[in-house]
Amino acid sequence: MKNPHFNPAKKHHRPDGFQNNHNSFRGKRWHEVLRWRWQAWRAGHPRPISEPIAVVAPDLAFIHANARAGAAMQPAATWIGHITVLAQMGGLNFLTDPVFSERCFPVQWAGPKRQTPPGLQLTQLPRIDVVLLSHNHYDHLDEASMVALSQQAGGPPLVICPLGHKAWFARRGMHRVVELDWWDTHVLEANSLAPEHARIPVTLTPAQHWSARTATDALRSLWGGFAVLSPDCHLFFAGDTAYSKDFVEIRHHFARAHRPEMGGGFDLALLPIGAYEPRWFMKDQHVNPEESVQIFKDIGCKRAMAVHWGCFQLTDEALDEPPRALALAREQQGLCASAFHVAAVGETLHVPNRLNEVAQPINDA
User: Fold this and answer.
1) Is 38 inside a domain boundary?
2) In angstroms, rounded to a whole number, what is the distance separating the alpha carbons of residues 290 and 157?
3) Are 334 and 365 in contact (CB under 8 A)?
4) What is the mean pLDDT of residues 90-105?
5) 235 CB contacts (<8 Å, ≥6 apart)?
6) What is the domain-level CATH number for residue 277?
7) Residue 46, in any domain of the structure
8) How far apart are CA 291 and CA 271, in angstroms?
9) Consecutive H or E run containing 299
10) Interstrand relation of 225-230 and 233-237 (parallel, antiparallel or unpaired)
11) How confident is the model over 188-242, as pLDDT tens digits?
């Protein structure tokens, strides 16, 4: 199958799909998968959790009042679980990779089962304006969740996604979809803002990962992260990624917008910390907490929220291990806990308004 978006001038394009910028992804062979499962079985992995995943009741009063606040909206992010975050900024409600189903699998009677409930149920969400979709793996693109959002009161959200996803949505009757290539930007018109602040650029950024929805479509659609430069909050969503030079390049790309006199770097980064063991198998697709801290430093963000952990048992580390490994990595790099925050499921993180202060990165121990 040919890649309809193929551009030979772009190094991540291939005639039949896409690749990473710096380390080409190669799908694992059957004997590598067997080796992984054999080693995990012999070692007794994954081990059970030693402490419960923290879950708090969501602050629904704040979330819904904030959703109606328009230009007075306070930048905030609520961790719903796994990779799903409700980000409120610029008068708009954004949702990252919505996954509310019990299992991240083609069917709901098999596959990885949710170990912690969503921090908000679909029925508790405010109206979602924009979905930021990073790629098509089942723990990121959940069909039932997307169909439910398309039927929300007030009309479906706008879905912004990498190249190669429109046809999937169109087959399910969803047509408010914008596809982007790496470094492409779509500008949102946020009517609730004052006219001078009514444009919010959303840029698809590179990531070190891969895509597949079936056994025959690997690398046919693109993957990536997002930079959302709302006047009141600059948000970075890494999506699913391994570590690569891409993150230094992302910092350079946005250096002009992140000059100190312009408010500094990203106000909040949503960075994955889970699904990383064993390293020989996962290193080319998922960061571990130490590498996630390096991404924090590479992109020059002010604060981060840990995502992609504590919900689905996808790999060998215990479900509650990533925060402990993150705490060690933070200590080694001189970051305080408030700089790279581990939220409880359902917790809302309030982010200082970029328009009101010139915040500096939090990097003291």
Assistant:
1) no
2) 35
3) yes
4) 94
5) 77, 87, 89, 94, 226, 227, 228, 266, 267, 268, 269, 270
6) 3.60.15.10
7) no
8) 10
9) helix 289-299
10) antiparallel
11) 976 544 444 568 999 999 999 999 999 899 999 999 999 999 999 999 999 999 9
201/171 Cα distance (integer angstroms): 28
Q: Is 29 exposed, middle or buried (0-12, 13-18, 19+ CB in 10 A)?
A: exposed
Of the candidates 333, 341, 336, which has an alpha carbon nearest to the alpha carbon of residue 306? Answer: 341
Contacts of 151 (CB under 8 A, 6+ apart): none
Rounded mean pLDDT, 301-324: 96
Tell which residue, 307, 266, 303, has the closest CA to residue 119: 307
In a domain, 319, yes or no: yes
Tell me the three state secondary structure of residue 242.
strand
Longest dimension (CA), the chain: 62
Number of neighbours of residue 154 by Cβ within 10 angstroms:
9
Q: How many domains are contained in the chain?
A: 1
Sorted by sequence, the CB contacts under 8 Å of residue 61 that are 6+ apart come out as none
Cβ-contact 269, 238 below 8 angstroms: yes
**Separation of alpha carbons 238 and 248, rounded Å:** 13
User: Strand pairing partners for 94?
Assistant: 87, 130
The rounded mean pLDDT for the chain is 92
Q: Which residues, other chains included, contact 137 with Cβ-Cβ below 8 Å and sequence gap of 6+?
A: 104, 211, 212, 213, 240
CB 142 within 8 A of CB 98: yes
Which residues have CB under 8 Å from 155's CB, separation 6+? none
Domain containing 74 equals: 56-350
CA distances 150 to 74, 106, 189, 202, 223, Å, are: 26, 19, 20, 21, 22
Mean pLDDT lowest among 76-90, 189-203, 262-276: 189-203
Tokens matching residue 257: 């917008």
Tokens of 294: 């390096």
| 8-30 pLDDT tens trace | 999 999 999 999 999 888 878 88
